[in-house]
Amino acid sequence: MCGRRQLPVVGQPQPERADAARNRQKIIDVAARMIESRGADQLSLDEVAKEACVGVGTVYRRFGDRAGLVWALIDERERRFQEAFMSGPPPLGPGAAPAERVGAFLAGLVDRVVSQLDLFLLVELGSPKSRFGGPYRVHHTHLATLLAEARPDADPHFLADALLAPLNAHLISYQRDERGLTVEEIKAGVASIAAAVTARPAP
């Protein structure tokens, strides 16, 4: 990931200095190894700093908190997902009706969360700034833009939050583990909500 810009795709910061990029990559590599060997819930920024041979302050300044470090770990898959809904083929990408794109985006986001569920569970334990910044902000902006076209009579920003709420990792984990729902059943339920939200009210 050295040399690549960070999330979100929209509004990127300036490129990093070479030494900062090297330290960032060391920290990410160490964190990835720790998660692989111990699990995501055992990730400690202090231990990551010690193993990466950098100061604890460097880790906190660079990533803010544990959730920020986890977002860096899931950066590549998130980047590909963002590219797909911004410029990929329809219905996820441009070219389909707004309501159809909303449904395709939410289905894709379910798959996105499930693919790295342990890391998303960890992100959701972070501060609201971490949880609702970064990719969430990009997802929200994208949804709100589509909803403004599909439902010009409603507040697209509120509806975007409402549609994203059921896609949190803890709820998806509970639905799968406790209720026995499959990913396809979860996606079908989300599709029903999206259809209801994007349907224009009768005159």
TrEMBL record:
Key words, A-Z: DNA-binding
HTH tetR-type domain residues? 21-81
Residue ranges: DNA binding: 44-63
Can you tell me where the transmembrane regions are?
Answer: none
Q: Which residues form a coiled coil?
A: none
* InterPro entries for this protein: HTH-type_TetR-like_transc_reg, HTH_TetR
Look up keyword Transit peptide and say if it applies.
no
- Segments carrying the region annotation (Disordered) are 1-21
Is Magnesium given among the entry's keywords? no
> What protein am I looking at?
TetR/AcrR family transcriptional regulator
The source organism is: Nonomuraea ferruginea
PANTHER family with a match to the protein in the record? HTH-TYPE TRANSCRIPTIONAL REGULATOR RUTR (PTHR30055), POSSIBLE TRANSCRIPTIONAL REGULATORY PROTEIN (PROBABLY TETR-FAMILY) (PTHR30055:SF209)
Which residues constitute the signal peptide according to the record? none
